Each structure stands twice: as structure tokens, then as C-alpha cells.
Amino acid sequence: MNKLPVQELLHGEYLHIARLHKDLNDLSAVPHRHDHYEFILPLKGSGKHLIDYKPFDIQPNRLYFIQKGQVHIIENFEREGWLVFFGEELYSTFLKIHKQESEKGLLDSYSPFPYIDLDENQLQKFIHLIEQINEELKAEKQDLNIIFHYVSLFILQANKIQVNQHPKEQLDLANRKIFQELKQLLEVKYKSEHLASYYAEKLNIDGKKLNAICRKTTGSTLFELIQERLITESKIELQTSTGSIKEISYELGFNDPAFFGRFFKRHTGITPAEFRKKRMI
């Protein structure tokens, strides 16, 4: 099976800021993953992009957060704005200090709102932060502590706005930790383990409690999250792999290719073969 291409824009840097434009990278218009976390702040231009195959509108003053590893596709249209990239070191340090932000707001990878809409006052605050970060990045001797705190302020402000614009009940820290462990286990085992009971047993937690945590966090049951992950990976394989649909079904843990076909159509409305032929944007 072919692997999804990875868009490498950080090149080992702690943090990087770039101008947003349509010719930034050849991979942008095809399904790809990032080797970094990314804020996208468009100032001009409107179009569409997909995050884990879910469509969203790109428009001026709408700030998006793309998580490391998420599948991203952005259509080819004229655009201007800012991109802020950072790696695992900065992100992990931020969450170590600000534990309360884990799986919250823009950092919630299951949120249906991976964006915030900025009024003029808010926009100017974020542009000022970007300018401050840029100034420090260009300094002869960079101070990573200053850069880290500027980016932390950027994330904290963005998360505060997201929670206000899209309020929902938040998990306590203990249950947030359980959900984080579930996400990690699901990412490793989703191809081979399709039943919710496996994950409850491995995490040593009652299945009903785990389901309640999933519903509170994502609005979906654990079984639905497993199916959603399988559908996302199915779409990736169908668009990027040279393997047959039969081979893809086996790769994803389906013993019966016909059942895989019915599963895919039930969730998408089209067959795997039809999906393979059509463009996603």
C-alpha cells in the first residue's frame, strides 16, 4: 500500500512562519499529512479545504488549526494570509504547562469546529502576535523562551475564543486523560480491532463509562469513532493506493470485501469504486 505523502514545511525548525499563498507547496491540492501543527489565517481569498475528509470553507479572518497527522487537502485558489507551523517539542511543552487545554477548543481533534471567526479587534491581536514572533525569529540570537510564550499566548487566545464561539461541556482532567489514551490506542489498533469492547478491556474501564466519555467529548459513541476512523483511512487508501479494493479491504481488517463495500456505501452514499473515480474537492 502506498503511504499518504507528508507535507514537510518545518524542516527541523522549532517554529516557522510563512505567507499563505496558493503556490506554497505542490502537495497542498492532494491528500497529504503534515509533519507539524499548523495555524492558517487567511486575510484574502475564499475557497474550500478538507480536514480528515470533512469539508470546510476558507474565508478571510477565519483562523484554522490543523493537527499533526490529520489528512489535509486545499483547493487551488488565490489566497493571502499567514501560516504558523510548530513541531511536537513546542506542542508537548505547551500541554505540559497548560494541561487544562488538552482536548479542548481548537486542540480537540474531534471538534466539528477546528476554526474561529475573528472580529477586527481580535484579528489585529493575532497579527500583532505573528509580527512579534517573526521579529524574534529574525533576531541574530533567538530566545526560544520568548518564542514559546508568544505561541502559547496565541494558542490560549484562540482556544478561549473557540470555546466562547462553540461552547460545549468539558471533561475533567481525569476523563480527558482516559480519552487521550483511547485516541492513542485507537490509532494503533483500529485496523485490527473493530469492536468497542476491545478498547474498554485494554483501558481497564467499564464500556458504558468509556462510551459516556466519548459522547461527552465528540457527540459520538466509541463504535462510531472506530467506524469514522476506518472510513477516513478507506478514503485515503482509495485515493492514494494502487492496491485493489479487495486488497484495501483486507488491509483495513475486513475479511469480506463485499462487506467492506456495503460498509463504505452505508457511510458515504457511494461505493469504493465510485469514490476512487471522483475528486474530493
TrEMBL record:
Keywords: Coiled coil, DNA-binding, Transcription, Transcription regulation. Residues 116-147 form a coiled coil. Residues 180-278 form the HTH araC/xylS-type domain. This is HTH araC/xylS-type domain-containing protein. It comes from Flavobacterium sediminis. Gene3D superfamilies: Homeodomain-like (1.10.10.60), Jelly Rolls (2.60.120.10). InterPro entries: AraC-bd, Homeodomain-like_sf, HTH-like, HTH_AraC, RmlC-like_jellyroll, Tscrpt_reg_AraC-type_HTH. GO terms for molecular function: DNA-binding transcription factor activity; sequence-specific DNA binding. It holds the Pfam family HTH_18. It comes from the Bacteria.
